[in-house]
Amino acid sequence: MNCWKSINLKKEYNPSRLMLLSMSVMITTFVISYLVFSLYYEKISYAELGLINTLLFLLLLFPIHTILHLIPLRFVGVRMQWNLKMSKKKRAPLLLLRFTKPVGRNFYINAMLFPTLFISVVSIISALTFPSFMLYFVLLFSFNAGLAVYDLIYIKQLLGAPRHCFIEQNKNGMDILLKQPI
């Protein structure tokens, strides 16, 4: 296979610019969705979970979002390598997932969209079902939208790739591969 294009978000986009974009999407999504839901439920009393429980609730979103990327790829039969490393700079555990063989473009796009759609639908339905916890589900929805910025940038790059290409992960990002002509 030939490498058609290599995608490295750290090279193409400044990491602080990506973080700023993600935070602005997160804040904008929270403000708009909270206004919509508060207009729908005018007179309700909110349940309080406390600051520590809320932070734990939001910190669980990161590994859940990462693991949900696996579900569509697992249905196709792609094997994954799991690595749990300690980050030296941030002193936090990192869950690294890599697939061992190239994956088709459409399957990879579906895998990138799955956590965003799944968590968004679940949080919106939960906000409608449990109005006293609506604030927390809107917060979950907005944090998930902020995480989805990175996925959507990858998807934007993949939509410009040829239809029958394959995606392979490497240390710096991903490679778009094309089959060699015979």
TrEMBL record:
The keyword Transmembrane helix applies. InterPro entries: DUF3267 (IPR021683). It comes from Salibacterium salarium. This is DUF3267 domain-containing protein. Coiled coil: none annotated. Pfam families: DUF3267. Keywords: Membrane, Transmembrane, Transmembrane helix. The chain crosses the membrane at residues 20-40, 52-76, 107-127, 133-153. The keyword Transmembrane helix applies. The lineage of its organism: Bacteria, Bacillati, Bacillota, Bacilli, Bacillales.
